[in-house]
Fold this sequence. Notes:
Helix content is 37%, strand content 16%. The protein is built from 9 helices and 10 strands. Strand 4 (40-44), helix 2 and strand 5 form a beta-alpha-beta unit. The protein starts with a strand and ends in a 25-residue tail after the last helix.
Amino acid sequence: xxxxxxxxxxxxxxRLLVGTGKYRDFQQTRAALDASGxxxxxxxxxxxxxxxxxxxxxxxxxxxxSRFTYLPNTAGCYTAEDAVRTLxxxxxxxxxHSLVKLEVLGDPQSLYPNVIETLSAAKTxxxxxxxxxxxxxxxxxxARQLEDMGCVAIMPLASLIGSGMGILNPWNLQLILERVKxxxxxxxxxxxxxxxxxxxxxxxxxxxxxxxIAAAKDPVLMAxxxxxxxxxxxxxxxxxxxxxxxxxxxxxSPTAGMIAPTQN
Length: 264
């Protein structure tokens, strides 16, 4: 815990947040979560049984809230009203749980965030006492607006949800990082371990992913790779990389004390 991730006043040792959907079954879900080292797991309230379907297996049994911090999200919501209603339900199902992930989508093809509806939903939820982590575009102005409203974490997309295209616009992420004080967590678009490392090297506070792990040929092994990449990227950011140079007049080996060439 020497370098904790702090969200809404609570500390976490892992900077990797992992979704619980798209796995073969709850057993594979748990195995991947354990391999990732994550402490915060996202849960799609509309798609996951948390006890509302008593005759079906419940995620609560495989992934107990005593071990993981649940982050209920609004996946599949396209209006502010729908998103707010979904998270109110989540609070009831999880005994008053207030930390949530808000996402309001623009269309079912791109799954790009609808920023106008997102801002509206965030305002309502914050007024009702929710601690809102918010999925949004990589627009630094919108990110600042969401922070000013009271969101506890800003979660810009790296690329489209489920695309695996990686970080397509690192410059916008950098602008957000320079302007926002709450944690900035890359959400959506991560495809492989190098994408997670790049996000962390840029200075992001964390990375959230689901499909990159669940859709891998070996989800558990990929989860382990993502854990290592997130940790390595964070260490590289803290260490401070060398400056990039087209040419370098500073050789990697010392020149002092070299034997002078023989002159005839």
